[in-house]
């Protein structure tokens, strides 16, 4: 089984092309393939390109726990770079991708080093995210995690996010409270991605990320989009925001209707020919 491996600011994915493997591996095999000790190691599998009646290409995004994600900004940039490397799209050619979380539009430039993605529109509406509880926008609500109260905001850009604006953030705190928030199914029926947000100035934020189905993550495009949208929504930042993460930086531009344009890199790591022995 052949895989192409890429990373986007340290968030790494294996691309599995249907021409090399017509069907996704089983859940058990996906977990093994993504395992960093017993498999190839990755934050998930990108399965495509598949045929689409709605867009130029179709992409499925599989988490390392074998659950399927609606959308991934880093995954989309990586897959866009893969399409470019395979000669399926040209430099500066805009193309569309169908994901479970909706249609996105992408452009690869600078010989694959820069990918710009129109991620879609952010909504803060509880019913759309979804979030159980009062109807309306989920802005500056409060919950208690491990005996401490936190204010939180929620958003969707095709997948659910819970953003905690804080004065101080850290990897340790993300690892501590992230899994509790992700799996708070009484509030988040589809579970949720979690971002700890610190505003640095009007055009810069820092985030720490706990990703649904993947755990602590060095970078995330959808998390950057959601966190930047929240920072703008609650008045911490303007509409042009650089998101700083442990893996690097992304540029997020927010339109008046909260449509998001994300720009950042994707890096090719290598081609892997996996031995089936690991799946025995």
Describe the structure.
By secondary structure, the protein is of the alpha+beta class. It has two domains: 127 residues, Roll (Diaminopimelate Epimerase, Chain A, domain 1); 121 residues, Diaminopimelate Epimerase, Chain A, domain 1, CATH 3.10.310. Helix content is 16%, strand content 41%. It contains four helices and 18 strands. The chain has an 18-stranded mixed sheet that branches. β6 and β7 form a beta hairpin. It is globular and about 50 Å long. The mean pLDDT is 97.
Sum up the structure in keywords.
280 residues; alpha+beta; Diaminopimelate Epimerase, Chain A, domain 1; 2 domains; 18-stranded mixed β-sheet; 16% helix
| Corresponding CATH architecture of the largest domain | Roll
Overall, the morphology is globular
Mean pLDDT: 97
Structural class: alpha+beta
Q: What's the CATH topology label of the largest domain?
A: Diaminopimelate Epimerase, Chain A, domain 1
Number of helices: 4
Compute the number of structural domains: 2
| CATH class category label of the largest domain | Alpha Beta
Topology order in helix (H) and strand (E) letters: EEHEEEHEEEEEEHEEEHEEEE
Our measurement of the CA-to-CA distance between the termini, rounded to an integer number of angstroms, reads 14 Å
Q: Give the DSSP E fraction (strand runs of 2 or more residues).
A: 35-45%
Q: Tell me the radius of gyration.
A: 18 Å
Beta strands, count: 18
